[in-house]
Amino acid sequence: MKLTLELSALLVLILCCSVFADELPDVESAPLHSWFYADSGVFVEQSGQKAANYSEVGFWQDQSGNGHYLQQDNALKRPFLINALIEGNSALRFYGANGDGPRFENREFSLWTNFETSLQQPNTVFVVVNTRNVLNEYIFDGLTSSSRHYLIVGQSNNPRVWTLGANKTAYSTDVLNGNFLVHTLVYDSADSRHYINGSIQGVFDTGSGSLGGLRIGSRYSEEGFADMDLAELIIYNGAVEKTDRENVEKYLMEKYGIFPHCGSYNAGFPVADLNRDCRINIFDFTFLADQWLEDTSDQAEKGALYPEISPRYTDIFWQGKDGIDTYRIPTLLKTSNGVILAIAQARKYSFADKSPTKIVLRRSYNAGESWLPAQDIVDVGNDAAMANTALLDEDTGRIWLFYVVYPQGWDDNNPIAGLTSPSTTVWTTYSDDDGASWSIARDITASVKLPEWTNYATGPGVGIQLKRGSFAGRLVVPFNSGAGNHIIYSDDHGQSWDIAGSVPVGSESQIVQLYNNNLLLNIRSGRQYGRYISQSTNNGMTWSPTYYDSTLIEPVGTGGSACQASILRYTDSSEYDCNRILFSNPASGVARQNLTVRLSYDECQSWQFSKIISPLAAGYSCLTVLPDNNIGVLYENGREYSAEKITFASFSLRWLTDNKDGI
């Protein structure tokens, strides 16, 4: 197939059509000085054992054969090895200053090396790194103020952009947090250059200083500690010339799955012919195109552009933020106006369930690119507001929030039945302005709870509004009690609520309406056979016997105790080309880890695609469809346990299906 591209603005295209070979390319224009990659030469101590997954790294051995090394003698400042973090390759994780969990209080992370002979300019540094913050954090620096080059994420006066040293040249390229990038830095005085994924970012004057050593993850003065994952670092003693540079970049991009390419096509060439099938990956550009893809062959099919968007990650809540001990139980919802609401429990003084807890919210007006500060929705003092579940009434635009209040001192070993405190009570509040303000909460316990029930909870996650059938428009919210699962519903837009039929097994559940109008409950089972499933053919009044979906494994082993999950209709065939349903949970039979998103085309009978969002510890999650039809997921995660923070990730259908599907 022959495709012609005719563009009228500056554009760089990176084309994928080569096969990765795990071997550093030969470079003729400059000798190799040092080479570090996280799958080799990583030790806890210089003379100690090799680092294992999640272990501290105090010694990183140079693979060039030139005898250099990176080290950290202080055990409290060592990064951690994370195996198979990107495309099967490992990386070293630096947590910045003080980290974001109890294990990392008063800790700072960095490695350093002192070169026996100063590295004079010109020299070239290649680094593969993923950053997670945007303000004044050093990827690397020299060891002293007089002998340094550096790369900074968001130097203090220029947040969210890169800064190149030693003359602190800042420029407007966004740091693209949450994405591994290949940086190439050619330090050559006034002719210094910075490339990202093979694309030139600028030419700068970085002074003429030499590099007497290297500090990874902080400033030379041991401040500006970076929150980052670093997979590979290569240094050449000279300015690597164009062909050699592109070969090394190509090697790194293919190795780590970062926009692999066969060649670059610049705006200086208005027409580029592709005489083979290729995937075109384009990132961060603005253009005007008179004609985008034009087929110039009489016999070829029309070409199509399939942009592949890797997930973007943003931490929304974390331990210690705003003085809160722990944030848990994420709820994610898109309003009628496209505002994204990230809701969570803020457990004030303790990680424990039913400890003093309020419900908080952060809002995004740009599909999760940035977020407003946190605001309280519900604060019940020393009681616990829990089991947050949100619901959008698309007919009115009203956002409903349901929650259960556990009174202070609640004892699970001696639960109290009833419809008033000291038993559990059910409340709802609503917003008519995209979450900016909320109504006075209303107690609906008497309508939706039986007097003999003790423990009681919504979802957690989201409820739905029925789209089809004789009760289209009905609001439906999943609940669970000691007697099993059921729904509550409203046919008058939330003015009144009633209890429907129940499923006598399982605990936390989420609900989806199938295309044949059946309701499907997806239920936490706590069994090794998978999630419980039950269906209703009469809008939730009665439910079928449960069966297992064995594909949807749950963490029921040691440290698992099963987990909540999220299920969401993505598209239906009345509006799109086919039916699609999404599902997310920690897909592990052993522990809460491997937060995975799955996709079904046959109404949950099978799951055709799945991708791991985070291979680390992960727990509760909630899915939504973003205004641009990308997918958002809000999920608990951490390095040691699953409730260290709550993160928002967004990604495309193309990414989820490896470019096999898109809308």
From TrEMBL:
Residues 1-21 form the signal peptide. Its EC number is 3.2.1.18. It comes from the Bacteria. InterPro entries: ConA-like_dom_sf (IPR013320), Sialidase (IPR011040), Sialidase_fam (IPR026856), Sialidase_sf (IPR036278). It catalyses: Hydrolysis of alpha-(2->3)-, alpha-(2->6)-, alpha-(2->8)- glycosidic linkages of terminal sialic acid residues in oligosaccharides, glycoproteins, glycolipids, colominic acid and synthetic substrates. Keywords: Glycosidase, Hydrolase, Signal. Residues 353-628 form the Sialidase domain. GO terms for molecular function: exo-alpha-sialidase activity. GO terms for cellular component: cytoplasm; membrane. One of its GO terms (biological process) is ganglioside catabolic process. Belongs to the glycosyl hydrolase 33 family. This is exo-alpha-sialidase. It comes from Limihaloglobus sulfuriphilus.
